[in-house]
Design a protein that fits this description.
The chain is an alpha/beta fold. The chain folds into 3 domains: 1-90; 95-290, no CATH class; 309-477, 3-Layer(aba) Sandwich (Rossmann fold). Helices cover 59% and strands 7% of the residues. It has a 6-stranded parallel sheet with strand order 5-4-3-6-7-8. It has a two-stranded antiparallel sheet with strand order 1-2. Helix 17 (410-413) links the parallel strand 6 (397-401) and strand 7 (432-437). Helix 1 (2-31) runs parallel beside helix 10 and helix 6 (135-162) packs antiparallel against helix 9 (229-251). The longest helix has 30 residues, at 2-31.
Length: 478
């Protein structure tokens, strides 16, 4: 009786801790919605995860037996913690999208490995009673498929973001992907309709299914252009969450289930918002090829106009309202700190400075918010593009730093453009426009930006960081 009581008591403690961990996950996710509380929210979620891990090691039992191999588990946790800590501390802000893809891929891989390890051990009693067509087997197969696709796709996304994997733009690719997806569904149906004594008899089929899922994950991401990377990262993140939730079903683990559902649902919602910000359907992002499809609208003899640092400093210093539009070029140059120094100098001169933040600027959701938060730019200065657009006609100077497609008028003017219909920062509505770029290179969509040839636009060429530093010096000297 004592042993039974202790077993039940242990389970009750475990369930209570799982509930506490789940609450901390939810609170953490809620706090992540605002930069001022994001760090605390991240800490809350981390505490919840630590509690769930410790409680599982101490109190989880299977068939009345405690968890074994505690030493190996703790060693794995320590090694993983050290590696993660070193990577996170050393990564540059410009490489943050790659880090997000890599970590997300590791989550998908973990979920897939759980399914591969559990499949051969499906209870023979469950198979004898319901056959392979049961919820437990379905959770394993979905966890394996979705987790593998998330892992393989995230690794390809990592390579594309890091620049060592290009786009595979073949028109037939979408038909190939659809075919592979149907094959994966066929594997699930095949496995769940087999009449076997033990699931181990179908283990070779599982390995083949894993290989097909890897191929699908690779082919799924390869055709997607760089401009769609924020959507892809968000979608793959939701895949990992769903795969983790399948693991929660397998182990009847409430904390794992809650965490997976939160990640999956949040990733899905964010994916939908990203698509809305680009005025494109998710299907169009997945099977479409973004970039390079538009026609050049340059008229004969049309040319750009440049501005000197001194003239730019004078124009900014004697303005009343200035709006800065940051893009990936700002991240590449690591120029966020000097940019904030410029806006503080202008603020001291009585100039109102705000940042126009486009939802898909950069290479991951919220990239510009993260970048500017690192430089301690007050959150109140970060204004979403749809909110700031109505005030742009009253803006004296709009400064574009390393952004391209998110300010391209082709989204409104050119029905043949691949970005047509995408909501943009309506930069051309401002009274004066200064564009900081290294050169006249095109953005991710690989189309000409007519904003650069607008009569109100002046180009200020050079590396964003050095150009901003020189501009700061000019403003100080006035």
């Amino acid at each position: 009786m004592s042993d039974i009581y202790q077993f039940q008591f242990g389970i009750s403690i475990l369930e209570v801790i799982y509930v506490i961990a789940s609450v901390l996950f939810i609170l953490g996710l809620k706090m992540l919605s605002h930069p001022l509380t994001a760090r605390r929210g991240n800490s809350f979620a981390a505490i919840g995860m630590v509690l769930a891990i410790i409680a599982t090691i101490l109190f989880h039992k299977k068939d009345g037996q405690p968890i074994g191999n505690i030493g190996l588990i703790i060693a794995a946790i320590v090694i993983g913690t050290v590696i993660g800590l070193v990577i996170a501390r050393r990564v540059k802000m410009t490489a943050m999208p790659q880090l997000v893809s890599f970590f997300n891929g590791m989550g998908g891989a973990a979920a897939a490995l759980i399914s591969m390890m559990e499949f051969p051990h499906v209870s023979p009693e469950l198979i004898a009673k319901n056959g392979m067509a049961n919820g437990y087997v379905l959770a394993i197969l979905l966890g394996l498929t979705i987790g593998t696709v998330s892992w393989a796709g995230s690794m390809i996304a990592f390579g594309k973001l890091d620049g060592w994997i290009g786009d595979l733009r073949v028109k037939a690719m979408k038909y190939v992907n659809i075919t592979i997806l149907l094959i994966l569904i066929g594997f699930i149906v095949f496995i769940m309709t087999r009449k076997v004594q033990t699931s181990a008899e179908l283990t070779p089929v599982i390995y083949i299914m894993f290989a097909v899922a890897v191929i699908y994950g690779v082919f799924f991401v390869m055709p997607i252009g760089g401009a769609d990377m924020p959507v892809v990262i968000s979608l793959l993140n939701s895949f990992t969450g769903v795969a983790a939730a399948m693991g929660g079903f397998l182990y009847n683990n409430q904390a794992m289930l809650t965490g997976g559902i939160l990640v999956g649902s949040a990733g899905t919602i964010l994916t939908i918002l990203m698509c809305k910000a680009m005025n494109r359907s998710l299907l169009n992002v997945i099977v479409g090829v973004f970039g390079g499809g538009g026609q050049s609208n340059l008229a004969a003899g049309e040319s750009i106009k440049e501005i000197t640092l001194t003239d730019a400093a004078v124009l900014l210093s004697y303005s009343k309202k200035v709006v800065i539009v940051p893009g990936y070029g700002l991240a590449v140059a690591q120029a966020q700190h000097i940019c904030h120094e410029l806006d503080k100098l202008l603020d001291e001169k009585g100039v109102e400075v705000r940042y126009a933040i486009h939802p898909v600027a950069g290479r991951m959701p919220g990239h510009m918010n993260v970048l500017l938060a690192e430089a301690d730019v007050p959150y109140e200065q970060l204004i979403e593009s749809d909110e700031i657009n109505p005030d742009l006609p009253n803006t004296d100077v709009l400064v574009v730093i390393g952004a391209n497609d998110v300010v391209n008028p082709a989204a409104e003017d050119d029905p043949s453009s691949p970005i047509y219909g995408m909501p943009i920062v309506k930069a051309r509505d401002a009274k004066n426009i200064i564009v900081m770029k290294r050169g006249m290179g095109k953005g991710y969509a690989a189309i000409e930006n007519m904003l650069f040839f607008n009569d109100k636009t002046r180009m200020l060429f050079g590396d964003a960081k050095s150009t901003l530093q020189n501009l700061v010096n000019e403003v100080k000297s006035l």
